[in-house]
User: Which sequence fits this backbone?
C-alpha cells in the first residue's frame, strides 16, 4: 500500500475520532456552552483543526519516511551487495520485526529454491548431453541395440536395430514391443528376461531373423544378448537386447578354413615332390650322375616354388595387417618394364613368344615402392608368358592418364584367355583356372599379391579384360603422387 493511501486512511480515521471527541466534549465546557450556536461551531472547528494539525501532520511525515525506508529495504532485499537497513518506530517495532523476519525467511527460501532450480537445470543439461552421447554411440555401433522398460516399451533403439527388426526409430519409441516388432519369438525372449528378475544373469541365444518375411527374404542368424538393467531402487528397470550379426564371422571363419585348406594343399605338393626325390636319392635309385643332377634340379625348383609360396603368403599377410614396410621413392615405370623384359626374355624365346613394349615418350614416374611395383609388372608379364602358346605375342605398354594423374601399365597377350565365370575370382587367394593347372605351375597367390600391392599399398586400381581363346589384357594404374602425401600437404 502506498504512503498516500495510508495517510488518507489515517486522516479519515483521525478526523472521525476528533470530530466525535470535539462534539462530545467541547459543548460541555462552560465557556463554550454559553456561546451561540455559530460560535460553538467555530470553536469546535478550530479545536478540531488544531488536533488534526498536531496529530496527522507529524504522523504522516513519520509514516511516509517509514514507508519509504521499508520500500527501499524490500527493493534491495534480494541484492547481496545492498547495505540498506530498516528501523521502524517504537510503536510499530513488533509488527515491523515480524514483517521483516517473514520477508527475510521468504527471501532465504526463494534463494534456496533458485539454487535448487539452477542445480536441476544444470543436471538436466548434463543428462541431455549424456543421453545424446549415448545415442550417438549406439547409432555408431554395428550391432543392433534395443532397450525396453518395465512395461515392455521401447525406450532406446539404434538405427541398426530398427533395420534388423523392421521399424522406424522415431515411431517405435515408447511403443510396446509387440506392436513395433513383428518377431514374436524375440518379444517373448525380452518379456521372459524381464520376468526372470535376475539382474546378474546375461543370456545368449542364437536366433534367426528375416529382414522382410513378407517378401520371403532369407533369415540371418544373430547372437542375441539379453540382460536386465536396474533402476534407482535396484529393481528390474527393463531389458537391454543386443543383436550381433553372425554372418560376417562365419564368412571369416569359412575363409580361414578355406585358406588353411588351400595353403596346406599348395604346401603339400612341393613338399611331396621334394620328399619323393630325396627318398629316391637315399635309396640309390639315381645310378648315374645325370640322374642325380636331374633329381637335384627338381628338388631345387620345388624348393624355390615353396619359398615363393611362403614369401607371397607372408607379403599378403603383412599388407593386409598394415605392417608392411614401404620404401616410397620416385619410381620410373619404364625402368621396371625394361628390367622385366630383360629377365623374361630367355623364357619367352624358348616358346618363340615375341615380347614388345609400347612406352609413351614422356616421364612415367610415380611415387611408390620400387621393388613392389617391379614385382607387379614381373608377375603379370610372367603369367602372360606361361599361358601364351608358342609363337604368340605379348605387348607391354605404359602411358599417363592426365585426368586421374596416374600412370597406366597394360600387359596384352594372344594367349588362352580366361573363362567369363573365372574373371571375378581371378584375384582371390589360391585361385587358379582348373583347366590351366596342367599348362603351367603356380601358387595362385601372384595376382592376389598384385592386387594388394596396387590397391592397398599404392591406392591404385587393377583389372583384367579377356575373351576365351582370344587372349587377355591385364592393366593397373598407380597415382603419380602418393595420396597420403597429398592429404598431408
Assistant:
Amino acid at each position: 500500500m502506498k504512503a498516500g493511501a495510508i495517510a488518507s486512511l489515517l486522516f479519515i480515521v483521525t478526523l472521525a475520532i476528533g470530530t466525535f471527541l470535539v462534539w462530545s466534549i467541547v459543548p460541555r465546557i462552560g465557556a463554550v456552552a454559553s456561546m451561540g450556536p455559530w460560535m460553538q461551531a467555530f470553536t469546535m472547528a478550530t479545536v478540531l483543526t488544531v488536533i488534526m494539525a498536531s496529530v496527522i501532520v507529524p504522523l504522516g511525515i513519520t509514516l511516509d519516511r517509514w514507508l519509504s525506508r521499508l520500500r527501499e529495504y524490500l527493493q534491495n532485499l534480494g541484492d547481496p551487495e545492498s547495505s540498506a537497513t530498516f528501523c521502524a518506530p517504537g510503536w510499530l517495532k513488533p509488527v515491523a520485526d515480524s514483517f521483516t523476519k517473514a520477508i527475510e525467511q521468504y527471501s532465504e527460501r526463494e534463494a534456496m529454491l533458485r539454487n535448487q532450480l539452477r542445480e536441476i537445470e544444470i543436471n538436466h543439461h548434463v543428462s541431455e548431453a549424456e543421453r545424446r552421447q549415448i545415442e550417438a554411440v549406439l547409432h555408431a555401433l554395428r550391432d543392433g541395440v534395443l532397450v525396453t522398460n518395465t512395461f515392455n516399451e521401447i525406450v532406446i533403439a539404434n538405427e541398426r536395430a530398427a533395420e534388423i527388426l523392421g521399424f522406424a526409430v522415431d515411431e517405435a519409441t515408447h511403443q510396446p514391443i509387440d506392436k513395433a516388432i513383428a518377431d514374436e519369438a524375440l518379444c517373448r525372449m525380452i518379456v521372459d528376461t524381464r520376468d526372470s528378475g535376475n539382474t546378474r544373469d546375461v543370456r545368449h541365444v542364437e536366433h534367426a531373423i528375416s529382414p522382410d518375411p513378407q517378401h520371403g527374404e532369407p533369415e540371418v542368424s544373430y547372437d542375441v544378448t539379453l540382460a536386465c538393467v536396474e533402476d534407482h531402487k535396484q529393481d528390474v528397470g527393463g531389458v537391454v537386447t543386443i543383436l550381433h550379426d553372425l554372418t560376417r564371422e562365419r564368412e571369416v571363419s569359412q575363409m580361414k578354413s578355406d585358406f588353411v585348406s588351400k595353403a596346406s594343399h599348395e604346401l603339400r605338393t612341393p613338399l611331396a615332390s621334394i620328399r619323393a626325390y630325396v627318398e629316391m636319392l637315399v635309396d640309390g635309385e639315381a645310378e648315374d650322375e645325370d640322374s642325380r643332377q636331374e633329381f637335384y634340379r627338381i628338388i631345387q625348383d620345388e624348393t624355390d616354388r615353396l619359398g615363393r609360396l611362403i614369401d607371397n603368403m607372408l607379403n599378403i599377410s603383412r599388407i593386409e595387417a598394415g605392417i608392411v614396410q614401404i620404401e616410397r621413392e620416385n619410381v620410373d615405370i619404364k625402368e621396371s618394364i625394361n628390367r622385366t623384359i630383360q629377365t623374361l626374355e630367355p623364357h619367352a624365346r624358348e616358346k618363340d613368344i615375341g615380347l614388345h613394349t609400347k612406352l609413351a615418350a614422356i616421364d612415367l614416374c610415380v611415387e611408390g615402392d620400387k621393388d613392389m611395383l617391379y614385382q607387379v609388372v614381373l608377375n603379370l608379364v610372367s603369367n602372360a608368358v606361361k599361358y601364351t602358346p608358342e609363337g604368340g605375342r605379348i605387348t607391354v605398354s605404359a602411358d599417363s592418364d592426365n585426368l586421374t594423374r596416374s600412370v597406366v601399365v597394360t600387359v596384352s597377350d594372344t594367349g588362352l584367355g580366361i573363362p567369363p565365370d573365372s574373371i571375378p575370382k581371378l584375384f582371390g587367394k589360391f585361385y587358379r583356372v582348373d583347366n590351366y593347372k596342367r599348362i603351367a605351375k603356380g601358387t595362385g597367390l601372384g595376382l592376389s599379391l598384385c592386387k594388394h600391392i596396387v590397391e592397398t599399398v599404392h591406392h591404385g586400381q587393377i583389372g583384367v579384360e579377356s575373351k576365351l581363346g582370344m587372349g587377355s589384357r591385364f592393366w593397373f594404374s598407380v597415382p603419380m603422387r602418393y595420396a597420403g602425401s597429398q592429404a598431408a600437404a
Summary: The domain at 141-245 is CATH 3.30.450.20 (Beta-Lactamase). Residues 154 and 174 are 5 Å apart (CA to CA). Residues 93-140 form the longest helix (48 residues).
